[in-house]
Amino acid sequence: MINDSQVREVITSEIPRMAIDLSMLKDDSSLCRAIACFADYTREAIQDHDVDEAMACFETAYELLCDGSATVKNTVINIYVNSVSRLVECTQTVEDHVRMRFLRLFGEEYFTMIYAPNP
Known about the structure:
Layout: H1 7-14, H2 18-23, H3 31-47, H4 51-67, H5 70-90, H6 96-114
Helix pairs in contact: 1-4, 3-4, 3-5, 4-5, 4-6, 5-6
């Protein structure tokens, strides 16, 4: 199980280009900041049409979702899936196979999020 203190290590081992961005975060233990930085990086890869990097990011996020502690899972859903889904769903320039891969990996969480009842 991946706990919140291991998230940065998992991301940087799978996405080496993230090492510098994650090392620049001041709070070493902030799971939310690390996942938000990772989501921003993923969004940039999608916008730059770097399909291989975007797919690698999806796979890493999915690993965190599947193997993470409850806190890690909730953070991935609430920050990563929420942030990336807005770009994937709302932008016409996103390649269909990128959109479909995102939905294959995170579709359940995405649909739960968008169809959740408003309080």
